[in-house]
Amino acid sequence: MWNQSPDNDISSDLSTLVDDLTHLDLQKSSLCSTITSPTTSVASSAEVDEATTLLNSISSYFSVKPTKYGGRGCFANTDLAQDTIVHECSMPLSSTIARPFRKEVCGSCFEFLHGKTLKFKLMSRKNKQNNSTSASASDCSLALYFCSQPCMDKFIALDIDDLYRESLLNVESLFIKGLNQCQYDLERKKQQEEAETEAELKLENELKQAKDIELFISQKWQEAEINCQLQLSKLKPKQRKNFNNLIYLIPKINENEYMEIKYIIGILFQMYKCDNCENNKLSSVSLSSLELQIFQLLQSSDVEKIRKYPYLLYSYTNKIYKFLKISTLEKVQSYIIPSIIRSIIGKKLTNAYGIWSIDNEPDGNKELFGYSLYSSASFFNHSCNPNLINIEKGAKTIFKLLKNIKKNEELCINYSDSINDGLEIRQKDLKEWFFDCLCERCVEEMNLKNAKK
Ligand SMILES: [Zn+2]
Ligand SMILES: [Zn+2]
């Protein structure tokens, strides 16, 4: 069934809507691309060869190969000594900072100065130019924060035509506008919230009853696309250029969605950069283009995640997607189609690295500042007895061997916070990554447990 959003009065069914769209001559290609789910595409042998070459270019110390238990893993090319640094990533392909920490964690190096507000602020160039009439206190706080001038300069140097800067500030501005809008109109806020909860529950129920979950999810993404295009098609091109006309269409997002949207924008920006800077000799472009190519090879886990947390489907399609579709700057709009956004979200779920306040302290009061994605570091599997550790140094992350290892041995890091806990807690924790840990330690402990029975 068509999933009605609170603000629209469309009552026709999906097939009529598709007909409508054909008449409106909207981007049909983007609708078609959603039909094949990213997980079901079949790779040709040339593509497989290309992928192998790409994966083997990650490190001379290891090769990325299929594992016995499914998926890929990293295997040592030769015997390697403890403390060898087998891989290094100078910066993530994309990263995102949780909203409460946006002024305290450096946007370039993730430095945190005991909760102090960072001094280096990067404001929007747009605001300075058009002297916005609604200049309020909240506009002054519209900035990206850095710990030092070099960190701010680094961000500017990596940007293109202020695209990344303006996109991130746009999310912040619309998030604030969404909050304010509700403050002034409590009745509307209440109505919206009720309608939203109802729609969310309805979708969850439909999902639970769906015979083919994968197909159902693909259909909901398609519907979200059609819904957005219909809403946008009601506006004249001039109206679309002014965000104030769009504010009522933009869904109110929560802080998790805000964080996710900023992560997605980071990847979209990299895509734009690679597509538009082919002749650019900048090393940062070629580096991120390699990471972006590897990113395409990562597995997406959105179906598993939605199966476990059904409410996420509503969040992805009706909030995150809609927010991006309606609010994103023109240059990246062509990337905002269901197949791309779905794959960006799905690949993050098991591949992102947390950005923490204190690193590697087993029982310290760690706080999660955000997360980052390093594609080339996404093939290390988990072990409860890891032989590899990732050490974060600012935005850079290095992978160092904890012990001597033999040729062909798999290189594994620890994913979870419960490495010091017993088998059951560890196994439960690791379910977040959608696998049952069968590392040597787990198998040994399982055997011991069974023997006791
Ligand atoms: Zn910094
Ligand atoms: Zn284990």
Detailed description of the structure:
Helix 9 packs parallel to helix 15 and helix 12 packs across helix 13. It contains 18 helices and twelve strands. The N terminus is likely disordered. The strands form four sheets. Strands 1-2-12-9 form a four-stranded mixed beta sheet. Strand 10 and strand 11 form a beta hairpin. The protein is of the alpha+beta class and 453 residues long. Among the domains are: 278 residues, no CATH class; 38 residues, no CATH class. InterPro entries: H3K4_H4K5_MeTrfase, SET_dom, SET_dom_sf.
Q: What topology does this entry show?
A:
Layout: H1 14-24, H2 28-32, H3 45-56, E1 62-66, E2 72-76, E3 85-89, E4 94-97, E5 120-123, H4 125-129, H5 137-140, E6 143-146, H6 149-158, H7 163-184, H8 186-209, H9 213-233, H10 237-241, H11 243-246, H12 255-276, H13 283-297, H14 302-308, H15 311-327, H16 338-351, E7 353-356, E8 368-373, E9 381-382, E10 388-393, E11 396-401, E12 410-413, H17 423-430, H18 440-452
Parallel strand pairs: 9-12
Antiparallel strand pairs: 1-2, 2-12, 3-11, 4-8, 5-6, 7-8, 10-11
Helix pairs in contact: 1-9, 7-12, 8-15, 9-15, 12-13, 12-15
Features:
alpha+beta, SET_dom, SET domain-containing protein, 3-stranded antiparallel sheet, binds zinc ion, 4-stranded mixed sheet, H3K4_H4K5_MeTrfase, single chain, 453 residues, 12 strands
